[in-house]
Amino acid sequence: AKGGRGSGKSHFFAELVVERCLLEPGLRVVCIREVQKTLAQSSKALIEAKIIKLGVGHMFDVQRDQIITPGDGVITFQGMQSHNAESIKSLEGFKIAWIDEAQTLSERSLSLLRPTIRAEKSEIWASWNPTRRHDAIDKFFLGYDEETSTYRGKPEGAQYVIANWRDNPWWTDTLEAERKLELERYPERYEHTYEGDYARAFE
User: What average pLDDT is seen over the chain?
Assistant: First the structure.
């Protein structure tokens, strides 16, 4: 799922993690960022909030660095930058890998992760606001060929969704005021921030 700020991508996937853990006891899920030096940089707080919102806190054991799920499954949080070809093997047997802020994922990390998440019916989820068409995750899902500047299309079996603020049924007046302020004060970066376009200016 690719798009700009306020589309609800991260909230969607965080809630889906909780739902899948309830439906499939023993499920093993890894939540990934390219760089994660602390758990504050992870999706853990958002998933904890979804557990509370859904009223299923009694079914989960929230620990300092992981969440134990029904059926002795687990949700764990890892940074890909700290992995190598040997350490990535620790993720074998995980059925779902969710990459949030996937625009920062490197080619190296994606090439390590893809063959590791290979349990039967396993899935890799990615949510991101694109920065450049050359980002590894964009190139993978769109099949962008730098030599010919053409797109080959998404891989077979992949689901690809563009989601922006207009698609968020929980959009609020406060979020709308912030969006309009961004458009008024920073029009050069608005298309990237809210409409999911590639970034044109960097700060």
Answer: 92
Is a pLDDT exceeding 70 seen at residue 69? yes
Cβ partners under 8 Å of residue 33, min gap 6: 41, 42, 43, 78, 79, 80, 99, 100, 101, 104
Q: How far is CA 186 from CA 132, 143, 203, in A?
A: 19, 31, 12
User: Which residues, in sequence order, are bridge partners of residue 99?
Assistant: 32, 126
Q: Has residue 31 got a pLDDT over 70?
A: yes
d(CA 191, CA 87): 39
| Secondary structure letter of residue 10 according to DSSP | H
End-to-end CA distance of the chain: 25
Give helix 173-185 / helix 187-195 axis angle, nearest 10°.
140
